[in-house]
Amino acid sequence: MTRPASSSPPSVKEWRLELYLSEHDPDTTARIVLDTGENVLESHAEARRNPYDRAMPEIGDELAAGRALIAMGRRLLRAAAGDMKAVGADETETLAPLWLPRE
């Protein structure tokens, strides 16, 4: 099925995400700052190398960055849920939690 052509141009937004990694062997820390132009959100995460494992800094970077990105996604989902609730949207039950209670 086709949709009628829209007369309004598509909306384009740019969000800036900065990822900072710091390594203090055996720990790697990631910090993410997301600037939406209207809000700034921040998340942090860590990775720790087992002292018996070979030092591979890129693995620590990937783990810490991936965990920080997941945490940022959860923050965005929480923000959207709060915004929907604030405008009176119906609450829907989810089969699995979108974020962990401690985050």
Automatic annotation (TrEMBL):
SUPFAM superfamilies: Rv2632c-like
Stored Gene3D superfamilies: Rv1738
Source species, domain of life: Bacteria
Pfam annotation, one family: Rv2632c-like
Protein name: DUF1876 domain-containing protein
Record organism: Streptomyces cellostaticus
